[in-house]
Structure of 3-isopropylmalate dehydrogenase:
Amino acid sequence: MTHEITVIPGDGIGQEVTPAAVEVLEALEIDFEFHEAEAGDHVAEETGEALPEETYDLAASTDATLFGAAGETAADVILPLREAVDSFVNVRPAKAYPGVDALRPETDLVFLRENTEGVYSGHEDRLSDDLSTLTRVVTTSASERLAEFACDFVEDGEYDGFHIAHKANVMRETDGRFRDAVLEVADDRGVQTEEVLMDAFATHVCLDPTQFDVVACPNLAGDVLSDLAAGLVGGLGMLPSANVGPDRGLFEPVHGSAPDIAGEGVANPAATIISAAMLLEYLGHDEEGQAVRDAVEGVLEDGPRTPDLGGDASTEDVTAAILERLN
Ligand code: NAI
Ligand code: MG
């Protein structure tokens, strides 16, 4: 069986780290067909549109999409792309790797972020010169879908259970609905849960991240808290992510186009290559996914490093070292 993969390098270092991840995928004994597609600032400058229809259609029809980064047009690219793959959860692991200088080297947790609603539903209004409002949307169905995913994730990964981060003591209707729906699914499935207020979580995770393994969050909380965790594990060059839908997925590093280093050939490819490992696992290639992870971790521990990790190696040097460990 051939897996059809859309590849969208995008802008800036997206053009450098995405080919590195494709090289890693090509080195495996798996049949892929790659469809390269355009998106981002450079396309918007030419055509006025950051996400061409062909790119959207490819993402909406292929098995998976690997995306690098976009620049100023990021929101115009990523939000529709997440919708194209019908992604309801954003999986964001935050792990400190051996050999990487991290604020909290013991950090190893995964955020499961609701990816379709909350305050990011786009229902904002400017009602007068003085007043703007935002309608926060929470449905039982989306909360349950996230909870089912969290239960599967906990069972597959053999975790003890998961935390639910919320603020239902204040947002009783919306976060209350989210919490109740998640608790009910987890209870039916016999999966242990623990509640944590999202503001208190921010403190706890900084003081002792080992208290947490898997954390299910509403959309905004997941966005903010996972970026906070990025600060604990050695920076943005290290964080992968997966936008998972029922039939397809979108895999991307958390970082952006990094205009300050773009074109120099020194971007850290780790986040994108680990995102490719998540793509492999999504497609059922667990063994190959693990092999890629092991190769990346080995190189992070004692191989060449890009400048963000204190080394002077290029993206190509690091990618070559990862490929060598893979073979
Ligand atoms: P950024 O993630 O691009 O860069 C932040 C800092 O981290 C920079 O100093 C950069 O050099 C460094 N960095 C990031 N990834 C790195 C890597 N792989 N290797 C080495 N260093 C790395 O975020 P910033 O500067 O806030 O935004 C730059 C542009 O990216 C903006 O136009 C923004 O809109 C866009 N952006 C796009 C995202 C996406 O496409 N998913 C996400 C975040 C920002
Ligand atoms: Mg963010």
In short: The radius of gyration is 19 Å.
